[in-house]
Each structure stands twice: as C-alpha cells, then as structure tokens.
Amino acid sequence: MEEGKDPNVNPVRTNQSRVLPLRLLRFMLVLVVIGIVLSIVSVRMNKSLGIRNIVTRTLPCFDEPVSLQSLIRPPSNYLHSMNDSELLWRASLVPQIKEYPFKRIPKIAFMFLTRGPLPMSPLWEKFFDGNEGLYSIYVHSLPNYQPNFTTSSVFFGRQIPCQMVEWGRMSMCDAERRLLANALLDISNEWFVLLSEACIPLHNFSIIYRYISRSRYSFMGAIDELGPYGRGRYNPNMLPEVNISQWRKGSQWFETNRDLAIDIIKDTKFYPKFEQFCRPACYVDEHYFPTMLTIQSPNLLANRSLTYVDWSRGGAHPATFGKNDINKNFFKKILEDQTCIYNNQPTSVCFLFARKFAPSALDALLQHSSDFFGF
Ligand SMILES: *[C@@H]1O[C@H](CO)[C@@H](O)[C@H](O)[C@H]1NC(C)=O
Ligand SMILES: *[C@@H]1O[C@H](CO)[C@@H](O)[C@H](O)[C@H]1NC(C)=O
Ligand SMILES: *[C@@H]1O[C@H](CO)[C@@H](O)[C@H](O)[C@H]1NC(C)=O
Ligand SMILES: *[C@@H]1O[C@H](CO)[C@@H](O)[C@H](O)[C@H]1NC(C)=O
Ligand SMILES: *[C@@H]1O[C@H](CO)[C@@H](O)[C@H](O)[C@H]1NC(C)=O
C-alpha cells in the first residue's frame, strides 16, 4: 500500500520527516567546514601576530570577580586625562550609605600648592616616616615644572595634572579645587590640608593627626575684617548670593573635612560671582572659600588657620625665615606663647604648620627637628 494513500497518515508530515535528516546533515556539514576553516585561520593569525600567549595569559583576568577593594583602591598613578569639569564631577560622588562595609582608616591628605621645587621635602620626609597608611600627598606645581624626586621619596609620583596659576586670581582657587578633587578620589582621605613649598610641620605626625582628627571644626580662617583690606574688597554686585555682613577674609592655607571639601568642589553658585567681582586688589583666594563656607556651614568652622605666619614686619608679604632665625626661642614663641580655642576649650597649641621658610633654613631644621618638633 502506498503511504500517501493511507488515510491515517498526513502526507505532508511524511514528506518532511524524510527530507529533514538530509537537510540537517547538509547543515551540519557546512558548520563543520566553517569551524575547521575558522580554526585554521585563527591559529595562523595568532601565530603570525604572536598574540597566542597574550590571549591565554589575559584570560584569567576576565574570570576574576570584581571585589569592592579593587573598586575603591586609590590610583597608584595620579595622572589622568580628565579635564576640570570631568574631575570635579567625578570627585563629587558621595556614598549614600554612611556605614562603610569595610575597615576604613581615615587619612589626612597633604596638598602642596607650589611653584616648582619643594625645598623642605627632606623635613617632610622625616615627618611622614613610619606613618604610612595615615596620610596621602598631592602636589600641584606650575605646568612647566618637572619634579625629580627619586622613587624612594614619599613625593615620587604624587604630582597631579596641573594648570597655570596666577597668584591672587581665580586660577589659584581652581588649583586648590583641583587638589581637593584629586584627593577626594581616594575614599580614605577624610581631612584635607593645603600647604605651600615654604611650609613646615611644627609637631610630629601623631600630634598633628590627633589634633585634626579629633577637632569638631575645620580650620578655615574666616573673619569679618573692617577697613579697606576686609569689607573694603566687597563688591555689591555679589548680591544676592553674598551681602556685606556675610563677607569674610581668611588665610589661604586651610584644613577642611571631607564634607566641606565636597562643598568647595561642587560649588557653582558662588564661583561665578567671585570670579567676576573679586579681582585684584580683591584677592579671591582670601575670600571665596571663607565666605562661601561661612554662609553654608558657619557651625563647622573654627574660623582660624593652623598655619602660623608672621605679618608683623609689615608690607605685602609675610616674613620669610632663613638660617639665622632658626633657634629654640623662635619656635618656643610659636609653639607656646599662644592662646586659642580648640573644641570650645582654651589651648596653647594653636598652630600645626608654619611659613614662610627659605631653603637656607633647611639644614638647621633637619638637625634640630627632634628637639624643636618631636620627630
Ligand atoms: C571637558 O570635556 C567635556 C567633554 O569634551 C566638555 O564638554 C567640557 O566643556 C570640558 N571642560 C573643560 C573645563 O574644559
Ligand atoms: C632636583 O632638581 C633641583 C633643582 O631643580 C636640584 O637642586 C636637586 O638637587 C635635584 N634633586 C635630585 C634628586 O636630582
Ligand atoms: C545678609 O543676609 C543675611 C542672610 O540672608 C541676613 O540675615 C542679613 O541681615 C543680611 N545683611 C545685610 C547687611 O543685608
Ligand atoms: C565661626 O564663625 C561663625 C560666624 O561667622 C560662627 O557662627 C561660628 O560659631 C564660629 N565658630 C566657632 C568655633 O566659634
Ligand atoms: C610626638 O611628640 C610628643 C610630644 O612631643 C611625644 O610625647 C610623642 O612621643 C611623639 N611621638 C612620636 C611617635 O614620636
């Protein structure tokens, strides 16, 4: 009996079931041929390009799961290709869960704003020695300066991408914001200290770390100074963002905690007003951050700087100390003959850093550092 005529069998289905294995076989054959051709081609290419070993060596990386530690590890190289808008945006990212799911040891970021060399670096090296893990270092110099620290130096590779700075102008605040933003990229940095090449530490690391980490306030100088060099620099065009009674003046050399550092780098409200209406003889680095933070967070400010400077000699620049100024009495005056408020209590420890020191002072400072400063 012919199959097609069987009333129980669907003729179309019968046809298909006969044809299918043939098609399948042909299809598989094509696949096998393509496979062989592809593998021959790829082996040849790998051999000719010499990438066979690289491919097998890099494979395990793809298998390794990403850990939190690898995502938050600070960069080993400070160089990056972000421009300022990109950098400030990246640095403004803030975790919304306040409790860290890992042991976070808070660090102090020491940010050096310099023209070129750091003549006091040997003293700082001595100061930092033995305190690894509790500090980070960032250096912003003029763009044409090439630092020449040896690989064993704590300053080696600590240079961030820099731009031109004109003293007393907004480009100075831009450099400070650039330092803060780079330092904010390391999630462990909790306090941020701005220093110059003429600054020295006045105490050993443990004293400075304890003083800063236990303070309820950030050390931003901010005073309401009457007269031409204070309120006299205020420009009413800054209204409504800043009025005359909110105008503040302070030393450029500050210390802030992480929250205030983020407030500084994320600001877009005050920046245009200061850029436009605080130009010499209004020195923007003495007014922008103190005024803005006084308006936004007055209760977080100590309103004084941690950096000693001597204006008593008069003139446009503070005194610079050289070899002949360095003696026990000089530092006794800075370290003991002072009173100020620390966490709402009077204290004689008012300054942790001092400026300005000439390179000629270095040898005497190094020689007597344990006597003067306890390190
Ligand atoms: C940074 O680069 C972005 C993208 O190219 C650009 O939109 C932005 O204006 C740049 N910012 C600065 C400050 O150059
Ligand atoms: C680095 O350069 C400065 C001059 O800019 C020089 O005084 C110093 O000795 C150099 N240091 C090293 C380690 O080469
Ligand atoms: C400045 O602004 C503050 C806050 O808005 C206000 O309390 C103060 O009275 C203003 N001062 C002047 C002189 O306008
Ligand atoms: C700093 O000054 C602001 C006003 O400008 C004030 O509210 C604040 O209490 C002062 N800080 C301290 C620690 O006294
Ligand atoms: C730091 O200085 C203080 C006071 O001078 C001293 O008691 C302490 O032992 C010093 N710490 C270190 C680690 O040298």
UniProtKB/TrEMBL annotation:
It is a single-pass type II membrane protein. The keyword Transmembrane applies. GO terms for molecular function: glycosyltransferase activity. Pfam families: Branch. The keyword Cell membrane does not apply. The chain crosses the membrane at residues 24-43. Keywords: Glycoprotein, Glycosyltransferase, Membrane, Transferase, Transmembrane, Transmembrane helix. One of its GO terms (cellular component) is membrane. It is found in: Membrane. Its main location: membrane. This is Glycosyl transferase, family 14. It comes from Artemisia annua (Sweet wormwood).
